[in-house]
Design a protein that fits this description.
The chain is of the alpha/beta class and 422 residues long. The protein folds into two domains: 205 residues, FAD/NAD(P)-binding domain, CATH 3.50.50.60; 206 residues, FAD/NAD(P)-binding domain (3-Layer(bba) Sandwich). It is built from nine helices and 21 strands. Strands 1, 2, 3, 4, 5, 6 and 21 form a seven-stranded mixed sheet that branches. Strands 8-17-9-10-13 form a five-stranded parallel sheet, covered by helices on one side. β11 and β12 form a beta hairpin. α1 packs across α9. The radius of gyration is 22 Å and the shape is globular. About 2% of the residues have low confidence.
């Protein structure tokens, strides 16, 4: 089948891209191995967005519900994206698994189940959270300890009795540690580098501050250490109805035991870093730097009178008795949950565009070394907002503009995507 463009993935980024291509009258198809919003359908049921509902924006669609300051549960995210696909009449081919994307005589050849598509442009929109990022030390977990990831976790009822070691203290780790502990199981949380932020500050959601102060708008080509920015863990936040604070202090107060970063497992013994206090002090320092920036912005814009007074939060408390080792063969820990992040899956991409770490080389979403190939849905793709749903609006506008120039064989298509939009 000959078609101008193929979008792979019908999540929020792929659907937003479809809208942009339709706006430019570019014929295309969206290939999806499941249904629209498929990746969200695999998440644990209690999950909610970290961002407030008012920030759930896509091209031509703003949140219009009755709870703009709430946090959308995963079932509502699925429903929202499914409605959006119908609203924009996205040409989604569901239940279609892409097997191979390779160079073709006039662009690209895409093998999807029993079909073959020939396209001048391809947009990879399968996202950054397709597979769990599990460290190599997982192989040293002694039997019969159960292991699982956030992609296989559903609820505490699926876990065997006994203690749970949650490895990783980003948003996913602290949320699941708290949820599992509330089920009555003892939980130990292994903490490495993390981002601490309050759920709300001076009467406004923290994402209001991140947006208003311009932090989310910072561009990829203006960030000093872009690789580090793209690998930062998600902030320790929970999207609960009552805007609950979720940080190490709160989960510790609930009874979760906090230990340092899991370094290695030797002879069935898990060994943790002794630098937990320093790690937490650094996270506290960075949080306070941002709060200082927020206060300065409020003063500069004359909004101090409309906001609650500035405040600072208690430093992270570390129990000096925190263990440096746990014997995983003792029966104390019966489950290890790897909340150590996610990674994309582009194993079907048969085009040499990866760097030595396996990451796709790109300039703001324009893949390097393969004209007409684009990628979406990766952290800090173009701005810090790219990490979140609403960031797809600007990202897809810029990518679609570049793609349109490429198809028209205009000289702009050879320029960096930085010339197109934010």
């Amino acid at each position: 089948m000959q078609i101008t463009a193929v979008v792979i993935g019908a999540g929020h980024a792929g659907l937003a891209m479809s809208r942009r291509l339709t706006d430019r009258s570019i014929d295309h198809v969206v290939l999806e191995r499941g249904e629209a919003a498929n990746s969200w359908r695999t998440r644990w049921p209690s999950l909610r967005l970290l961002t407030p509902n008012w920030q759930t924006r896509l091209p031509g669609h703003d949140y219009a519900g009755e709870d703009p300051d709430g946090y959308m549960p995963v079932a509502d995210v699925v429903a929202t994206l499914t409605r959006y696909a119908r609203l924009i009449n996205a040409p989604v081919r569901a239940a279609t698994t892409v097997r191979t994307v390779r160079a073709g005589p006039q662009g690209f050849e895409i093998l999807a189940d029993d079909d073959v598509f020939h396209a001048r442009a391809v947009v990879l929109a399968t996202g950054a959270c397709t597979l769990p990022a599990i460290p190599g030390i997982a192989d040293a977990i002694p039997p019969p300890t159960a292991t699982l990831t956030p992609l296989t976790y559903r609820d505490p009822g699926q876990l065997p009795g006994g203690g749970v070691l949650v490895v990783g203290a980003s948003a996913t780790g602290v949320q699941l540690a708290a949820e599992i502990h509330q089920s009555g199981r003892p939980v130990t949380l292994a903490v490495g580098e993390h981002v601490r932020l309050p759920r709300a500050y001076r009467g406004r959601d923290i994402f209001w501050w991140l947006e208003r102060t311009g932090l989310l708008a910072e561009r990829y080509d203006q960030i000093d250490d872009l690789s580090r920015a793209r690998h930062l863990p998600s902030p320790q936040l929970t999207g609960t109805r009552d805007a609950t604070v979720t940080d190490l202090n709160s989960v510790s107060a609930q009874g979760v035991r906090i230990v340092g970063r899991l370094g290695r497992i030797t002879g069935g013994v898990a060994q943790f870093s002794g630098s937990l206090a320093n790690t937490c002090a650094l996270a506290d320092l960075k949080m306070n730097r941002f709060l200082n920036r927020a206060d300065q912005w409020a003063t500069a814009t004359g909004l101090n009178g409309e906001l609650s007074p500035p405040q600072r939060f208690a430093p992270t408390h570390i129990d000096p008795r925190s263990p440096l080792e746990l014997d995983l063969t003792s029966g104390e820990i019966t489950t290890v949950l790897w909340a150590t992040g996610f990674r994309p899956d582009h194993s079907w991409l048969d085009i040499p565009v990866r760097d030595r770490t396996g990451q796709i080389r790109h300039d703001g979403g324009v893949v390097t070394g393969a004209r007409g190939l684009y990628v979406l849905g990766l952290p800090v793709l173009r701005t810090r907002a790219s990490t979140y749903i609403h960031g797809a609006a600007d990202d897809t506008e810029a990518i679609a503009a570049h793609l349109h120039c490429f198809l028209g064989n205009r000289r702009e298509s050879d320029r960096s995507v930085t010339n197109h939009g934010s």
